[in-house]
Amino acid sequence: MQAYYQARSGGNKNTDWSHNLQPLFDTKLRPHMRDFLIKRGFEMK
Q1: In the chain, at which end, N or C, are there fewer CB atoms within 10 A of the end residue's CB?
Q2: Per-residue model confidence (pLDDT) at position 4
């Protein structure tokens, strides 16, 4: 995959898709949804 990114970007990009997505998984995207779903009758573990 790294070779693909380097070829696609002309050698200017030296990363992979998991590195690009890391910030997305470091934070909670919708923290308010748990309380919303509990109020609607959903049970949480």
Answers
A1: C
A2: 78
